[in-house]
Design goal:
single chain; about 375 residues; alpha/beta; Rossmann fold; Dihydrodipicolinate Reductase, domain 2; five-stranded parallel β-sheet; 14 strands; about 20% strand; globular; Gfo/Idh/MocA_oxidoreduct
């Protein structure tokens, strides 16, 4: 595979490389790591990519790889949001499969354009909603689908960080593009981590959000995009939901958790204990499930005890994507998020931001 983005100092680029290698034996062999040729070559060297396969931009990447007998099969897109669409469209034109970081694009209109382009092309497309790759998240999804907690009544999902509590964007590149409308799109925290929470709520509960009442605001002085986002949710089966997202929550590192309450039980999962799923039965008894627990409904894809880092879920997602490329099309849009989930997430961002700017009651996600 090739990587677009993931330049010097990138965290997520290495996660893509290691996850692809661990989960599916995929080698990173090419990339456009930076618009600066020297920095692209330097980043390529850190990934073990030869100089002749380090390209200045994505157009040069696809042209150069198409001319090789051993050219790439897929590309991972790990750039700021505004570059997702042009890179993906170039990949579709080249007939290369795409694993993209979330959100799918910078705007809903762009996501719809991408969806249309994918329908016309031959490229497969997946989104790295990493938390959907955790074995115990998949276990929760399977148990809800099997009716083990009865009919879903309420979903509570929380994702809180504190790293943007101060105006870090003044001297930090990672913070700068995430708080810049021209690079992030219409959402700040809602686009960066809110889409993870939104996707997880639908993924585990098996229900789709029908409408929301949102409150997304920038609470750090001078910040143009939201750094705190809250929403009340109504699901299509009548269930209620609460989504709480913040990047100005002092002391929080990566506080992601989800609770799904049914009429016959409940399930709780948290990132800090990713290898654990807590199930509350209708009689009030509590069961702690781990990857080696008897009676698991979903198979454990990797060795138990590895579930608290990000490499494992990326490995699972790449394993699924490799299977899809190999012909198992049942995975995309089911356990593996695809463009339809990307469009829904972009619609969530725009609706929650619009709901906050123009408070007029509940907003549909149609």
């Amino acid at each position: 595979m090739a990587l677009i983005g993931g330049g010097l100092g990138s965290f997520i680029g290495k996660i893509h490389q290691m996850g692809a290698a661990l989960g599916a034996g995929i080698d990173l062999v090419a990339g456009s790591f930076s618009s600066d040729p020297e920095r692209s070559r330097a980043a390529g060297a850190s990934y073990g990519v030869t100089t002749d396969r380090c390209y200045a931009d994505h157009d040069a990447l696809f042209a150069g790889e198409a001319a090789r007998d051993d050219g790439i099969d897929l590309v991972a897109i790990a750039t700021p949001n505004h570059l997702h669409l042009p890179a993906a469209l170039a990949a579709i034109k080249a007939g290369v499969h795409i694993m993209s970081d979330k959100p799918a694009t910078a705007t809903l209109a762009e996501a719809l354009d991408l969806q249309a382009a994918l329908r016309q092309g031959t490229s497969l497309y997946a989104l790295s909603y990493s938390y959907s790759g955790y074995p115990m998240v998949r276990e929760a999804r399977a148990r809800v689908a099997a009716g083990e907690i009865g009919t879903v009544r309420k979903v509570v999902v929380t994702y809180q960080q504190g790293w943007l509590s101060a105006p870090l964007e003044q001297n930090n590149a990672r913070a700068a593009w995430r708080t810049d409308r021209s690079k992030s799109g219409v959402g700040g925290a809602s686009a960066d981590i809110g889409v993870h929470a939104f996707h997880l709520a639908e993924y585990v509960s098996g229900q789709r959000v029908a409408e929301l009442l949102g409150d997304a605001r920038g609470l750090v002085s001078g910040r143009a995009l939201d750094d705190d986002c809250n929403a009340l949710l109504h699901f299509d089966n009548g269930a209620s939901g609460v989504l709480v997202v913040s990047q100005i929550a002092f002391g929080e590192r990566n506080g992601l958790s989800i609770q799904v309450f049914g009429d016959a039980g409940a399930l709780h999962w948290a990132f800090d204990t990713a290898d654990v799923l807590t199930m509350i039965n209708g009689d009030g008894s509590t069961v702690i499930l781990r990857p080696m627990s008897p009676g698991l409904l979903s198979s454990t894809p990797l060795a138990p005890g590895l579930g608290n880092g990000l490499i494992v879920p990326f490995a699972v997602l790449y394993r699924d994507f490799a299977a899809a490329i190999g012909g198992d099309m049942t995975r995309i849009g089911s356990v593996l998020p695809g463009i339809d989930e990307g469009v829904r997430s972009m619609r969530f961002i725009e609706r929650v931001v619009d709901s906050s700017a123009n408070p007029s009651g509940w907003t549909t996600l149609a």
